[in-house]
């Protein structure tokens, strides 16, 4: 820990944490350390939205060889009840609801190692805490350094630090003695800062990229690389980014892998390449069929991941899995570029044929008659499932029949939607992910009433 403390002090003294005065920030760390000192390897639930307080607390826990559970300040009662039933920390820092303030400490034995537990799930399902160590997080940073051939990683962060995407931006900068600046997205939407960011990396989700391209494209242009992840990006957004000549890099990763494991470099993106790019050097990806056999290039199957940055299980079952199946479907080409076709549980099997929604959505969006579209499967007595499209039309005269006519020249008949539904907008999360549960419930109700615009 002495080396860790020296590296931290050097980083802070050199002003690498932009906007934070060294002595004031370090005093915050000491304050949190004093609270940890009464415990041997403390287990702390950290629920802090302010970045400077979050990072001071986070670093204090690591300095005390403790373990930290990252909490989302925006969890609601149902999520908090799940967390309260799952973990029993020694300390709780930040804003918490009554369900946690009434907890009785469980007096658990300290972990043999220090863990960083990153939450995943929540509104889309059961909350789980992904277990990482300093070693797995370091492996992710080193793979990033090697792939992008950069020594000091400078990060401009607007993503929450309690998510893997925001946390890894900080760790990349801290571990490599690069610059780190946190900036509120709400403030960014009003007034982007005027500093020079040509040597900085920026990470965005699609909805953020759309807003910034519409309002401040000139601010995005200088960034060294702008990573895009968190949810699938729509083709019109990607084309708008190319037209704006920004250094966009679509990326693929998850909490279980300590963020990105594949990234399409900006130079490839600008030249019209698609997909999420090549696999980072610390990762091995295999595409497998349902029997676990490795598939050849261009064959769609389950994405299986082996990596030195792979998590050590979901709390409380801590072990080191040899590999991890992401639940996503995809394929690779001869040069090792990866394409994501969607979640395995979103694959549609209609009349015995497999349909991947991403392919159908891309064909519909290419017609330029819709603003947004989601393709999914609904139960059907005859077909097992039918392919259904929910779309936001560009023009009032845009109909399922007109779109069907266009698709007949692009897709096999079994891939074409058999029912079409219009919506003023598609229900999505702030990051751009589709709320499939809400959408399917709406569609089941609509089908009972009208059976949709059946073809």
Topology readout:
Elements: H1 2-13, H2 22-36, E1 43-47, H3 51-63, E2 67-70, H4 77-86, E3 91-94, H5 98-101, E4 116-122, E5 125-132, H6 134-148, E6 154-157, H7 164-175, E7 180-182, H8 185-188, E8 200-204, H9 206-215, H10 217-220, E9 225-228, H11 235-243, E10 248-254, E11 259-263, H12 266-270, E12 278-279, E13 283-288, E14 301-307, E15 324-332, E16 338-343, E17 348-350, E18 353-355, H13 357-366, E19 370-380, E20 384-393, H14 400-407, E21 419-422, H15 436-450
Parallel strand pairs: 1-2, 1-3, 2-4, 6-7, 6-8, 8-9, 9-10, 20-21
Antiparallel strand pairs: 4-5, 10-11, 11-12, 13-14, 14-15, 15-16, 17-18, 19-20
Helix pairs in contact: 2-3, 6-7
What are the salient characteristics of this protein?
single chain, 455 residues, alpha/beta, Rossmann fold, GMP Synthetase, Chain A, domain 3, 3 domains, seven-stranded mixed beta sheet, five-stranded mixed beta sheet, 15 helices, globular
């Amino acid at each position: 820990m002495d080396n860790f403390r020296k590296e931290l002090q050097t980083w802070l003294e050199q002003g690498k944490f932009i906007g934070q005065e060294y002595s004031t920030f370090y005093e915050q760390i000491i304050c949190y350390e004093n609270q940890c000192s009464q415990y041997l390897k403390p287990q702390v639930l950290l629920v802090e939205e302010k970045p400077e307080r979050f990072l001071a607390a986070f670093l204090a826990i690591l300095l005390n060889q403790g373990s930290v559970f990252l909490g989302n300040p925006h969890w609601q009662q149902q999520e908090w009840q799940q967390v309260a039933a799952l973990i029993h920390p020694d300390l709780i820092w930040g804003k918490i609801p009554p369900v946690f303030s009434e907890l009785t400490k469980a007096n658990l034995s300290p972990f043999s190692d220090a863990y960083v537990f990153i939450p995943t799930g929540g509104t889309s399902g059961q909350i789980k805490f992904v277990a990482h160590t300093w070693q797995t997080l370091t492996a992710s940073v080193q793979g990033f350094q090697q792939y992008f051939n950069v020594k000091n990683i400078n990060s401009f962060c607007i993503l929450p630090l309690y998510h893997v995407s925001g946390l890894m931006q900080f760790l990349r900068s801290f571990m490599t003695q690069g610059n780190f600046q946190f900036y509120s997205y709400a403030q960014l939407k009003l007034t982007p800062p005027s500093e020079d960011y040509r040597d900085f990396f920026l990470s965005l989700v699609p909805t953020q990229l759309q807003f910034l391209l519409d309002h401040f494209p000139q601010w995005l242009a200088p960034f060294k690389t702008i990573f895009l992840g968190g949810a699938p990006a729509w083709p019109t957004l990607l084309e708008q980014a190319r037209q704006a000549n920004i250094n966009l890099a679509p990326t693929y990763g998850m909490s279980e892998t300590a963020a990105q494991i594949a990234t399409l470099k900006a130079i490839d993106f600008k030249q019209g390449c698609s997909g999420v790019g090549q696999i980072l050097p610390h990762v091995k990806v295999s595409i497998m069929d349902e029997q676990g056999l490795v598939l050849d290039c261009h064959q769609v199957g389950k994405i299986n991941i082996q990596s030195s940055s792979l998590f050590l299980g979901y709390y409380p079952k801590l072990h080191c899995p040899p590999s991890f199946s992401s639940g996503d479907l995809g394929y690779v080409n001869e040069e090792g570029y990866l394409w994501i076709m969607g979640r395995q549980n979103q694959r549609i099997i209609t009349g015995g044929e497999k349909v991947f929604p991403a392919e159908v959505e891309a064909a519909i969006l290419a017609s330029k008659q819709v603003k947004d579209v989601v393709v999914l499967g609904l139960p059907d007595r005859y077909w097992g499932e039918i392919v259904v499209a929910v779309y936001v039309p560009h023009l009032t005269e845009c109909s399922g029949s007109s779109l069907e006519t266009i698709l007949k020249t692009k897709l096999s008949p079994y891939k074409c939607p058999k029912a079409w539904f219009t919506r003023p907008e598609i229900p999505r999360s702030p990051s751009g992910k589709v709320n499939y549960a809400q959408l399917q419930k709406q569609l089941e109700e609509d089908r009972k009433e009208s059976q949709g615009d059946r073809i």
